[in-house]
Design brief:
Structural class: alpha+beta
Strand order of the largest sheet: 1-2-3-4-5-12-6-11
Radius of gyration: 21 Å
Shape: globular
Strand content: 25-35%
Order of helices and strands: EHHEEEHEHEEHHHEEEHEHE
């Protein structure tokens, strides 16, 4: 039986935590994802976090599995951020049942898309495919052990603003394969919602998710690079057309300078960014993990039919 979690499940949840040492669902492009906390479990069970959901699988009066998701603010999109099951021969079945239950609940709640990030060697991969999820991309996690200050000259780099939607979307379409865009956003409207840029309610301190800072490189009236900086997780994400080495180096060094000292830096790279992988390795980054990115669309895209005037 799978049902919503309750505060009275705490003791059974603690027993599950002692058996399961790894959360299979990764929430960020980092090598590991910790086990959900007791505070987080109670918060979801008491519905204190309105954007977070949690379900448990109960067998013989005890919890044998758990799945949770969080909604992206202002969107009809869920990210699975918790997925645990007892390490038994039936674990694959448990994962599949939990994923199917979550997708059913998401569909009933009007959610259009569900995303799942796992390690490339995770036992969840087969269950995800069986539950209707599509592997749409791979993610390579590069790690820079120590950061330092660089001399950078990049006069055409500036902060992204609201008027850049269309230009950044053209860069996105030119650099991201259609198979990936099918889930991350085929149209400007879809892409803006899934990216969550500018969708926060009035009164929120930031227009970007997770305190992100965005920069764009504009050359000749065209945006040729997009740099996302996550200060809290010390993460850099680059989306750019193949550039000259000097330009790519300056863009990366600018992001590293923005983060400053304070620990290692993480830089995720998608499978379609082969040139960026080679560049990061030459800059001293190390490959430390590989992730599989899954998604499931809960609505069907239907082409709009309309009458058009016929000119003689």
């Amino acid at each position: 039986m799978i049902r919503a979690s309750r505060p009275t499940d705490l003791m059974s949840y603690l027993a599950l935590r002692r058996k399961v040492k790894c959360n299979e669902a990764l929430t960020r492009p980092e090598p590991e994802s910790g086990i959900p906390t007791i505070r987080g479990f109670l918060s979801r069970s008491l519905s204190l976090g309105p954007l977070r959901e949690c379900w448990v699988q109960v067998q013989h009066g005890r919890i044998s599995g758990l799945i949770g998701a969080r909604a992206r603010i202002g969107t009809d999109v869920w990210d699975i951020d918790q997925l645990l099951a007892e390490p038994t021969p039936e674990a694959d079945v448990a994962y599949a049942q939990l994923l199917e239950h979550l997708c059913k609940a998401a569909a009933e709640d009007g959610v259009e898309r569900v995303f799942l990030r796992i390690r490339a060697d995770s036992p969840v991969a087969q269950a995800a495919s069986g539950a209707g999820f599509t592997l749409y991309s791979s993610e390579y996690i590069y790690w820079l052990r120590s950061n330092r200050h660089y001399a950078v000259s990049l006069p055409n780099l500036r902060r992204r603003n609201r008027s850049d939607y269309q230009a950044v979307f053209r860069l996105y379409c030119a650099t991201v394969p259609a198979q990936v865009r099918q889930f991350e956003g085929m149209t400007l409207y879809e892409w803006r919602r899934i990216d969550s840029w500018g969708t926060r309610p009035a009164g929120w301190p930031s227009l970007l998710p997770c305190g992100r800072t965005d920069f764009v490189l504009e050359q000749g009236g065209t945006i040729t690079a997009w740099l996302q900086i996550y200060p809290q997780s010390r993460c850099l994400i680059l989306l750019l057309q193949p550039q000259e080495r000097a330009t790519m180096t300056a863009l990366l060094h600018y992001g590293l300078n923005h983060l400053g000292h304070g620990g290692p830096v993480v830089c995720p790279v998608h499978s379609y960014q082969g040139y960026l992988r080679l560049f990061l390795e030459e800059e001293g980054f190390e490959l430390i993990a590989e992730h599989a990115l899954f998604a499931k669309a809960l609505v069907v895209r239907v082409p709009e039919r309309r009458l058009m005037p016929v000119r003689a």
